[in-house]
Amino acid sequence: MKESKTMTCAELLIHLLRDTYGVRSLFGIPGVHTVELYRGLEGSDVQHITPRHEQGAGFMADGYARASGQPGVCLIITGPGMTNIATAMGQALADSIPMLVISSVNRRDTLGLGQGRLHELPSQQQIISGVARFSHTLLDASTLPEVLARAFAVFNGARPGPVHIEIPIDLFNAPVSAPVSWQAPTLYRAAPDPEGLAEAARLLRAAKQPLVLLGGGCVSAPEAARALVEQLDAPTVTTINAKGLLGRDHPMDLGANAALPAVRELAAKADVILAIGTELGETDYDVVFDDGFHLNGTLIRIDLDPEQLVRNQRTTLGLVGDAGRSLELCWCIFGAAEASRRRANRRRSERTGSSKRSGV
Question: Where is the Thiamine pyrophosphate enzyme central domain (predicted)?
Fold first, then answer.
């Protein structure tokens, strides 16, 4: 039987965030409803950053996640705290940014009764669920490890985004017996089908005017992105969320403004387009909103979310998989094929030279 000890729900939350999920920074504004939650921070080395407004906490967490690649975590009070952070959650949802919002909510025995409790909303979870990939009300402190595991699973799923867990204020001090060391499951993102990748490589090798479009899904694999672009010798558009991925002085980087006439002309003339980790939305490719960005060639799309493969542009070959892993595999497959082609050419050259020397 695993060793366990008793702690409060609030203490267990901080313990799990720090020791199981590696959280080292939190964003939020303490309030009367979250005082007990903050007691869980006492004695820990988790940094707490206090903004002037909950919307600021949300955008701080968003920026932290973009810069670090780790989920940004917020501690938010009931009611106005949650409505304040909703805008930042909406932005994170649109850009698939991992954000964990942990809030208080009124006591379990008062939920939904409309008694005019402090900060009470008719249904806080219902209000916020529209800007969250997953929203859950904790009703039993013993289920906290499982609920947190579900939240972090979202960050490794088809599309990351904000997750909301609300904890009734009467649960913060509830005693809970939990394993001293809770082992989070190891999750791996899927890679595209090898046959599909091989077909993509075939199309790209045959391209006369290839074009690469890299979105925010690619930021975890900058080296593979650069290597693939250089193998293809293809001009590349990076979206705002992928800006700087290739390096500011990379000769293949066309920048992050696909609305420029020269870029539009290049896109329209490209015979094969590889789009990875981008939704091909107007905010990245048509910021002048005149429907002037067109892809007329063969379009290869790779995305974690299969629904993205049929949005905004007509896809020729769609591959479901993590953008970062896909970049690495594409580069390996394309590089191996190129190496094989070079070896074959070298052997043909050697045979030709040998024949010439022998007079055959």
Answer: 197-328
Model confidence band, residue 346 (pLDDT cutoffs 50, 70, 90) = very low
Per-domain residue ranges of the chain: 4-179, 194-345
Q: 132, 93 in Cβ contact below 8 A?
A: yes
**How does the average pLDDT of the chain come out, rounded?**
80
Q: How far apart are CA 179 and CA 7, in angstroms?
A: 10
Q: Residue 185's Cα: distance from chain center in Å?
A: 19
- The more confident residue out of 357 and 133 is 133
Give the span between the Cα atoms of 107 and 130, in whole angstroms.
23
CB 318 within 8 A of CB 310: yes
Give the Å distances, CA to CA, from 139 to 9, 44, 74: 11, 26, 20
Query: Which one of 3.40.190.80, 1.10.1240.10, 3.20.20.150, 3.40.50.1220 gives the CATH number of domain 194-345?
Result: 3.40.50.1220
pLDDT of 328 reads 75
Coil/strand/helix, residue 253: strand
Tokens 């810069």 sit at which residue? 67
Which residue in the block uniquely carries the two structure tokens 């366990």?
4
Q: Which CATH number fits domain 4-179: 2.30.38.10, 3.30.70.100, 1.10.3720.10, 3.40.50.970?
A: 3.40.50.970
Quick one: pLDDT at residue 221? 77
Write out pLDDT tens, residues 205-227: 888 888 999 888 887 778 888 88
Amino acid identity for residue 33 in this structure: H
Q: φ and ψ at 80, to 5 degrees?
A: -60, -30
Task: Please give the torsion angle defined by the CA atoms of residues 139, 140, 141 and 142, in that order, rounded to the nearest 10 degrees.
Answer: -150
